[in-house]
Amino acid sequence: MKKISKSEIATFGENTRLVIGGRDPSDHHGFVNTPVYHGSTVLAPTVKDLLSHSQRYSYGRRGNPTTEAFEEAMRALDGSAGVVTCPSGLSAVSTALLSCLSSGDHLLMIDTTYQPTRTFCDRVLNRLGIEISYYDPLIGTGIEELIRSNTKAVYLEAPGSQSMEIPDIPLIVAAARQHDCTILLDNTWSTPLYFDAFGHGVDLSIQAGTKYIVGHSDAMFGVVSASRKAWPALKKFYGDSGLCVGPEDVFLALRGLRTMGVRLRQHQDSALRVAKWLASRPEVQHVLHPGLDGDPGHALWKRDFKGASGLFSIILQPAPDAAVAAFLDELKFFGLGYSWGGYESLALPFDCSEYRSATTWNPGGPGVRFHIGLEDVADLIADLDAGLARFRALSIS
Ligand SMILES: *Cc1c(COP(=O)(O)O)cnc(C)c1O
Fold it and tell me: Transmembrane region positions (predicted)?
């Protein structure tokens, strides 16, 4: 096999980059995959080598060939200047925020962010003397009025957690740019395949690798990728904070990454089919899926995104909790649980009203979030059909 240079990799299609990025079998006796390097101490042959840090690897915490393979593969995919791996998605969120904020700074945080991200802001950043204002995801140019002289960072997440709103990312980025703010984006739902964070001017792109990168619900993982401007501070903070990920989990993340393109395509296709079917049902008031015609976020999604993944929500007709439980408890293929992005389908009842402040959550019926896995769509629809019959039987009409 001919060796491919890193600069040449950028010219290939995204699925090719997913397959070849961060991989050099000639470094590993011809084995296709980079092995799991367990280790803390890295020995140097001489005192001179040890003290001059001339070796490629110096200490386990500072990285090994397994972590480096992942970082390179992610860079090949997302075109970032640098990548760090974190032990969870939430630690990727906290790492990105702490890399660019100091006491006295002000952060503009999207109101529809993942709830634990909000808790981190309110309980940790706040204690460190960082001011936080939450903004409506549909604020548009109104973001200008919220930017203060000490606003250092603007944080986006798209679509909104559970409620699925699509913000006008280019508008918000342009306003933030003008004031030289660092722009952060939680890109977990789209992955770099369906939203080009750096092409849209983002500085720090965060992914809960636990979801589509790992893809099999068998590891916790997080990634922060940085623009050229944000990379030095991220790299420094990451090194100073002592974060590192066990090599087995990095291996699982890298293994997941190789097949993420085909998996996402199937998640997208199946989720759209299930979402359209749900939209036709009388028990369902609204389907919140930006890929559907008629969704309030559809036009922006179509303009800015390259695809939709397998996660969306519905708002049911008003009904007692028992009806929702009857719907979900007996489903055969939809597990009840947190997280998503694995090969299996999941369902989760939700109510955002406790964790929103710039917007009001009052959808007029119970919310359920679905992750559509890789099962056959006909089986999923039959399962939901039976579930909706149970829901109807316990609904008060
Ligand atoms: C799950 C999730 C996270 C957190 O990831 P963990 O690996 O569970 O810590 C962050 N952001 C979004 C959008 C998520 O869905």
Answer: none
Task: Confirm whether 296 is domain-assigned.
Answer: yes
Whole-angstrom distance, CA of residue 374 vs CA of residue 306: 20
We report the CATH number of the domain holding residue 378 as 3.90.1150.10
The answer to the question of residue 290 being in a domain is yes
| Ligand 1 surroundings by CB, under 6 angstroms | 88-90, 93, 114, 161, 186, 188, 208, 210-211, 220, 222, 339
DSSP secondary structure string for all residues of 98-162: HHH--TT-EEEEETTS-HHHHHHIIIIITTTT-EEEEE-TT-GGGHHHH--TTEEEEEEESSPTT
The single-letter DSSP state of residue 374 is S
Q: Has residue 222 been placed in a domain?
A: no
Please write the tens of the pLDDT for every residue from 181-223.
999 999 999 999 999 999 999 999 999 999 999 999 999 999 9
Q: Is 235 assigned a catalytic role?
A: no
Is residue 270 in some structural domain? yes
Distance from the first to the final alpha carbon of the chain: 67
The residue nearest atom 7 of ligand 1, judged by CA position, is 89
Active site residue 61: yes
Number of structural domains the chain divides into:
1
Please give the pLDDT value at position 2: 85
- Domain span holding position 348: 261-396
| Alpha carbon distance 119, 109 (integer Å) | 12
Q: Among 339, 340, 350, 370, name the best residue to mutate to test ligand 1's pocket (greatest count of ligand atoms within 8 A of Cβ).
A: 339
